[in-house]
């Protein structure tokens, strides 16, 4: 086997440029990298100062002098001693951040160990001054970057010697610097870029200076420093200074001034002008908390199990939707259009990762997605926000070019749009659904001149309260409430606790309750005034059914989740409102039943009126027949007996009553001017008159007619037995009568005609309720009192009236028997009245007391 020999990588001197000025291709990025190093060194502040920019000798001297352009970046961090400088700062690609994720209670901002080469990007020379709190002296390291810019394949980077020296505090001060106790001062000399441009008149004289590069630097740093996360103790500040450009700075508006502290206040006041959503991982990575706000008011918040664990465990996203008005307020606050500012930025350990979020950068695929569904999706132009990550495990690796991060599994779990199954899109889709489905895009009024309004907002002439929207707040809130569960779109099994703005719920309830009560009161009034029909009630009941079903659906949705106290109270109000709707529905159903009953009674009354008229005609026909049958008597006697004359006279009076009464009823029904109860009473009276006439016709050939019609002394027991036996054939052939006299006897003066009507009514009722056997039992209570118990083997009194049997003797009270042939509710009423006229009474005894059916007791007395 051949012998193996060792080889080693060589680090060519050209490595400096590759990881320095060639890799870091932007001045602002280079400065940010040095600021991040200061942050990691526990600095409280970083000062960025420019000197000798308007006048310098950059192009006149080969190296540099005191008049050469300079950039000073100084921090008050822990500083470095010579060991740190040798073993750490000069150790290419070494970074404590790889092994020590958190230092000085801060998450460290970088991880590559090449940020120090930003100095090469910024200038040709570097003087590094450093001091620790434990050292009395300063350490100075000088680098001429050009010494590394030679083409020699054998020249290694470590072969270039670097000079360092120690300085006393006085020697350091004599260089023109102010002493410091600890920290690092980077003096970058002979700047590679031009930071300010002179503006010349036509004669070539300088009239002004273009300082936009300073403005851009400050705005860049503002966007790169995360105010919400990185500086937990609010103890880190970045300051820009350029004494030569004080006048230029002061001439700018407040949003463009570059001298002073760099502060990211871009989102400070947006809460009250926009719709926003914030989502963050809590409880050691196990829970996901999301809160949606609209113009400062919380619409909902939800705590749920973290579906992205363990890939995403320490992250937060804040997204703002900018309506046309909100965009104008953004410009007023920042001095730039929101579209120029950027969209959704990514911050890792407190600092932004370029180029994510910059103008035109669609790193989340939002605009690409919008192109597929224009009217349903929000685009980048309508969004600003940020994603913040505290990355202690280096799951999100920044690529060496400082142009984004590695698209690994953690990146996909953070950003992928497929099925909204990512940390960002889960929150973003909730915001999007709220804006599109709930607010209907929160559009401005169609008549508004947006450009004109924009100018007024930016100038401060128009305030937020002056704005007019396409839809009013109540309309939007009602739609939000109706779609809230779809907006939240959470699995019940994943939800730990849910809050939905209680005003959304109670406001809907209050508004609907007011409308419902008003409609219900109007319905009652219309019903009382006979201005409503059954069809209208049916429509109202259908509406109530839909409303109740909708409330049931809402409560069912809420029941899936554990809600907080405020939401639970609002849900209880919703439940109470549902019960109110159910009560109203029940009352309306009862009204409909009454209305249908009244209609049935009206139809029955019309039918009865016709029937009674027919009966009256039949009586006239029967009398005619009787007259014809007794012509032979007229031939022998020539004149009627006084009793017959009386009978004919009485029948005529009865028929006149029937005729006139029916005509009055027909008139009332035709003009729809009637009261049902009055109508029933009238028909009851006509029925009695008709029955009297029929009985008189039956008695026409009998003797003692006058006594039958008027009162006469009779033996009640004998009369009832003889009447039922004599006239039994008028009832069903299957009907059987039995009697128990018990030696009872009572004589009383009464109308035989009325007594026959009473017996007919009771027997007719028994037959309707299924009886084929009726038993009469007489019981002598005293010489002046007699009870007649009338029992049948029918179905008995229905359960409906057992507990209140006296109601069956009231006018129009009835029930439908098994035969289906319901009565008019008149018979028992007039039976009791006729008995009362005789100074007698009737009452229901019970079911099954004698025979299996109902038993009634008629109480006769001669007192």
Molecular structure report:
- The chain has 863 residues and is α+β, with helices and mostly antiparallel strands.
- The chain folds into four domains: 15-262, Histidine kinase-like ATPase, C-terminal domain (Heat Shock Protein 90); 270-496, no CATH class; 604-703, no CATH class; 710-861, Heat Shock Protein 90.
- The protein is 41% helix and 19% strand.
- The chain is built from 25 helices and 27 strands.
- Strands 7-6-5-8-2-1-11-12 form an eight-stranded mixed sheet.
- Strand 5 (123-131) and strand 6 form a beta hairpin.
- Helix 8 (324-334) packs parallel to helix 13 (450-459).
- It is rod-shaped and about 155 Å long.
- The relative contact order is 0.05.
- Residues 229-233 and 627-643 have low confidence and may be disordered.
- InterPro entries: 2C_sensor_his_kinase, HATPase_C_sf, HATPase_dom.
- One of its GO terms (biological process) is phosphorelay signal transduction system.
Structural class: alpha+beta
Overall 3D shape: rod-shaped
Beta-strand segment tally: 27
- Note the beta-strand portion: 15-25%
In which range does the helix fraction lie?
40-55%
Which architecture of the largest domain does the CATH hierarchy give at level 2?
2-Layer Sandwich
Number of domains: 4
What CATH calls the topology of the largest domain is: Heat Shock Protein 90
CATH class categorisation of the largest domain? Alpha Beta
Q: Provide mean pLDDT, rounded.
A: 81
Report the C-alpha radius of gyration, rounded. 52 Å
| Oligomerization state | single chain
Number of helices: 25
The residue ranges in which pLDDT falls below 50 over 5 or more consecutive positions are 229-233, 627-643
Largest sheet: 8 strands, mixed
Tell me the span between the first and last alpha carbons: 146 Å
Strands of the biggest beta sheet: in what spatial order? 7-6-5-8-2-1-11-12
> So, the CATH homologous superfamily of the largest domain?
Histidine kinase-like ATPase, C-terminal domain
């Amino acid at each position: 086997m051949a012998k193996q020999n060792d080889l080693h990588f060589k680090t060519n001197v050209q490595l400096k440029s590759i990881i320095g000025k060639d890799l870091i291709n932007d001045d602002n990025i280079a400065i940010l990298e040095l600021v991040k190093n200061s942050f990691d060194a526990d600095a409280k502040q970083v000062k960025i100062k420019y000197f000798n920019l308007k006048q310098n000798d950059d192009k006149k001297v080969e190296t540099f002098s005191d008049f050469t352009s300079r950039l000073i970046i100084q921090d008050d961090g822990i500083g470095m001693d010579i060991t740190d400088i040798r073993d750490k700062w000069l150790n290419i690609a070494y970074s404590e951040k790889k092994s020590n994720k958190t230092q000085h209670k801060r998450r460290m901002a970088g991880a590559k160990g090449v940020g120090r080469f930003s100095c090469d990007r910024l200038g040709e020379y570097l003087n590094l001054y450093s001091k620790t709190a434990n050292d009395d002296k300063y350490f100075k390291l000088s680098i001429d970057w050009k010494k590394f810019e030679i083409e020699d394949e054998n020249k290694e980077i470590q072969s270039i010697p670097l000079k360092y020296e120690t300085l006393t505090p006085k020697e350091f001060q004599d260089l023109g610097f102010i002493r410091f106790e600890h920290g690092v001062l980077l003096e970058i000399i002979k700047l590679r870029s031009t930071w300010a441009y002179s503006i010349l008149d036509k004669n070539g004289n300088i009239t002004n200076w273009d300082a936009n590069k300073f403005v851009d630097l400050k705005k860049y740093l503002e966007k790169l420093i995360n105010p919400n996360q990185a500086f937990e103790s609010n103890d880190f500040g970045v300051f820009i200074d350029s004494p030569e450009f004080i006048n230029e700075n002061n001439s700018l508006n407040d949003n463009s001034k570059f001298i002073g502290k760099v502060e990211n206040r871009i989102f400070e006041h947006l809460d009250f002008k926009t719709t926003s959503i914030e989502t963050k991982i809590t409880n050691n990575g196990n829970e996901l908390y999301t809160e949606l706000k609209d113009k400062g008011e919380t619409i909902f918040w939800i705590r749920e199990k973290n579906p992205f664990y363990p890939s995403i465990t320490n992250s937060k996203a804040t997204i703002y939707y900018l309506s046309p008005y909100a965009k104008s307020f953004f410009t007023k606050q920042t001095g730039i259009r929101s579209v120029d500012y950027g969209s959704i930025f990514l911050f890792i350990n407190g600092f932004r990762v370029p180029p994510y979020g910059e103008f035109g950068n669609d790193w989340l695929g939002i605009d690409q997605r919008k192109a597929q569904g224009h009217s349903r999706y929000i685009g980048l132009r309508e969004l600003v926000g940020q994603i913040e990550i505290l990355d202690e495990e280096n799951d999100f690796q920044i690529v060496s070019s400082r142009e984004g991060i590695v698209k690994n599994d953690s990146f996909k779990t953070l950003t992928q749009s497929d099925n909204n199954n990512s940390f960002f899109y889960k929150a973003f889709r909730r915001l999007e659904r709220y804006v599109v489905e709930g607010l209907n895009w929160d559009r401005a009024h169609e008549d508004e001149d947006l450009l004109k309004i924009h100018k007024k907002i930016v100038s401060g002439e128009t305030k937020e309260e002056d704005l007019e929207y396409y839809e009013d707040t109540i309309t939007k809130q009602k739609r939000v409430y109706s779609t809230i569960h779809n907006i939240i779109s959470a699995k019940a099994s994943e939800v730990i606790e849910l809050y939905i703005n209680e005003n959304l719920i109670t406001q809907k309830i209050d508004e609907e309750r007011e409308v419902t009560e008003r409609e219900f009161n109007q319905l009652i009034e219309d019903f009382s005034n006979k201005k409503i029909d059954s069809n209208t009630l049916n429509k109202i009941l259908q509406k109530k059914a839909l409303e109740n079903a909708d409330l049931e659906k809402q409560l069912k949705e809420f029941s899936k989740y554990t809600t907080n106290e405020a939401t639970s109270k609002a849900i209880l109000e919703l439940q109470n409102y549902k019960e109110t709707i159910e009560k109203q529905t029940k009352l309306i159903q009862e009204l409909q039943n009454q209305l249908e009953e009244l209609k049935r009674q009206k139809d029955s009354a019309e039918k009865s009126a016709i029937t009674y008229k027919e009966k009256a005609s039949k009586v006239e026909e029967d009398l005619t027949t009787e007259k014809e049958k007794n012509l032979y008597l007229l031939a022998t006697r020539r004149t009627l007996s006084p009793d017959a004359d009386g009978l004919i006279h009485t029948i005529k009076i009865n028929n006149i009553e029937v005729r006139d009464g029916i005509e009055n009823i027909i008139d009332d029904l035709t003009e729809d001017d009637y009261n049902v109860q009055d109508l029933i009473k009238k028909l009851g009276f006509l029925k009695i008159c008709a029955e009297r006439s029929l009985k008189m016709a039956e008695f026409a050939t009998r003797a003692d007619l006058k006594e039958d019609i008027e009162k006469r002394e009779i033996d009640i027991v004998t009369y009832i037995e003889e009447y039922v036996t004599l006239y039994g054939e008028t009832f069903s052939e299957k009907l059987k009568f039995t009697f128990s006299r018990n030696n009872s006897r009572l004589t009383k003066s009464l109308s035989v005609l009325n007594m026959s009507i009473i017996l007919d009514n009771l027997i007719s009722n028994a037959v309707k309720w299924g009886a084929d056997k009726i038993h009469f039992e007489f019981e002598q209570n005293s010489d002046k009192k007699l009870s007649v118990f009338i029992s049948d083997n029918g179905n008995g009194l229905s359960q409906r009236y057992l507990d209140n049997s006296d109601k069956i003797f009231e006018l129009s009270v009835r029930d439908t028997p098994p035969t289906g042939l319901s009565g008019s509710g008149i018979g028992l009423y007039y039976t009791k009245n006729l008995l009362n006229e005789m100074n007698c009474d009737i009452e229901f005894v019970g079911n099954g007391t004698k025979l299996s059916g109902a038993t009634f007791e008629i109480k006769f007395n001669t007192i």
